Amino acid sequence: MSWRRALSAAAVVISVAALSACRQDMHDAPRYDPLEASPVFKGGASAQPLVTGTVARGQLHDDELLYSGKLNGQIADQYPFPITREEIDHGQQRFNIYCAPCHGRTGEGNGMVVQRGYRQAASLHLDRLRTAPAGYFFDVISNGFGAMPDYRAQIPTEDRWRIVAYIRALQTSHAATLADVPEADRPKMDNPTPATPAKAEGGHTGGL
């Protein structure tokens, strides 16, 4: 065998060995597959329970009022942030998307799906709801009540509070008289501004 042929054979052997080592490193990745056994952890399982007190990223929710509608475990009648006209307008948009199908745009409980045979939704103008604290509505939107499903996944936390603020505006307007309208704004009642249609988005029907 000539020295050239011997050199070529050696190069092939080295290349194969190198590729085999690379393949083995990739094959034995430094991680565990689901349900794979482990000689390292107690009990021999690679999947270990979370350490007590572990909180997932973005799930701390250390503001009790903001995330539960409660203070010291009791339903609160206040908002976790200032409510401005802009907040109420945004709440109206969210209300028209998610709540109006059952409760109706004026909160009478006669939304379109109710008119077409869905279970009767509660009027938001009942005495028990007119006097209910703000945190009560936030809790119902978040966790559901009776036939009404929860909207925690569909509606962000802050938007739930904006909806609550708009519900309060609806309730106030329902029982208002002309004397409650500032004198400078009374001429507008004869020429109301048309409502802007809500942007179409997905939602789910239900009722308080």
Keywords:
208 residues; mainly alpha
How is this structure best described in words?
The chain is mainly α and 208 residues long. It contains eight helices and two strands, in the order ααββαααααα. It has a two-stranded antiparallel sheet with strand order 1-2. A hairpin with a 2-residue loop joins β1 (70-71) and β2 (74-75).
Taking pLDDT < 50 over at least 5 consecutive residues as the criterion, the unreliable ranges are 200-206
Mean pLDDT: 85
Number of strands: 2
Helix percent reads 40-55%
Largest sheet: 2 strands, antiparallel
Strand residue percentage: under 5%
Rg estimate, integer Å: 31 Å
Strand order of the largest sheet: 1-2
- In terms of quaternary structure, the protein is single chain
- First-last Cα distance: 91 Å
Characterize the overall form: elongated
Q: What is the N-to-C succession of helices and strands?
A: HHEEHHHHHH
Structural category is mainly alpha
Count of helices?
8
